[in-house]
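Sync notes, pocket subgroup
Present: LS, DG
LS reminded everyone that the earlier model was apo-only. Rerun requested with adenosine-5'-diphosphate included. Inputs:
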Amino acid sequence: MPESHGTTIELEGLTKRYPGSSLPSVDNVTMEIKAGETVVFVGPSGCGKSTTLKMINRLIEPSGGRIRMGGEDVTGIDAVTLRRKVGYAIQSSGLFPHMTVAQNIALVPRMIGWSRARIGERVEEMLHLVGLDPGEFHGRYPRQLSGGQQQRVGVARALAADPPVLLMDEPFGSVDPVTRDHLQDELIRLQRELRKTIVFVTHDFDEAIKLGDRIAVLRERSRIAQFDTPAAILTSPADDFVSGFVGAGAALKRLNLTRVRDVGITGHPTATVGDPLQLIFDRLRSGGTNEILLLDEQGRPSRWLRRGDLMRAKGSPDRAGTPVHATVNRDATLRDALEAVLTDDTGRVAVTGRRGEYTGVVDMETLLNSVHELLEADRPEAPAEREEA
Ligand code: ADP
Ligand code: MG
């Protein structure tokens, strides 16, 4: 089945006045979102993010303005046609508790009249896509899943009818930080494949930086304070409201924008469990470093060994040295990499491939150079601004 890629979304003067409120909750929002782009709405609680998002799929009826998708005015189209175009995922997954995982995922395809067979296939495909084993999860109920698993099912359900547009309202807001990090990584991976047009709402600026191709920083009544790339917002925030939202340490936050694949990954001397001790010594000497990385039988990083460790090990290097606790893959951010380097305290971190196999290392010096470059990039403008103030 061909996946449908994203489509443009244009909001024109979009406005919402709730009955009984003197001021509109969303006031005259105009923006263009490109096909295949991930745009993140970020702003303080109550500023109108959810209301704006829900007008796009008309869970909330606009009081004024227009919405176009792929150039076509969808402000007045019927709900069923709209569900076909727009998937929707929310916080706490929003799954129906009395339906199984499969029934939840099948919801929109059933509503728009897909055949039983096609729905069955699609449910399996979606479970695979979000990393859940269909055999295990198909018949479970939401309460039998962890928070992170529920969230994955929520995303599977939103994507089931293959809509070009995906709306996500704080979808990872209620899971623990580690799971949230994983789900964010998954979404980035999915999006690289699917190229949907995603509008993602969060109040967490770090999440916005990580996920957004562009970020719309919203102030009260959903008015756009700045709409630009994460790098541009971090480097030149439009005003005090945006700076306040970016928070302290803007330069360091840019560590989230650079990936391990963008910096210098280098080779490092390695040996494999079971290699003769003499060979390990030889490699240490010829490698010009004081540490060698020992790999397990599957080629995965296992231990860091120094010469002294080897002397003490008396022939069994597989229990000597320091175990590898942290590794990163090529898509990890520099921030992740720095964290990993500090965790293992060996001055470098091993970079692994899809199956956890060793592919190279990034060392502390490379990371610090990148940090230095980021800090340098901030410098030119700062003195001038201070003189004006
Ligand atoms: P956010 O998602 O940014 O936290 P919302 O879009 O939920 O903000 O809410 C924006 C504003 O609209 C808030 O002031 C909120 O109180 C108000 N609001 C939201 N839903 C309703 C409603 N159903 N009736 C009246 N006011 C509402
Ligand atoms: Mg909200």
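DG: The radius of gyration is 25 Å.
LS: The chain has 17 helices and 17 strands.
Action: DG to write up.
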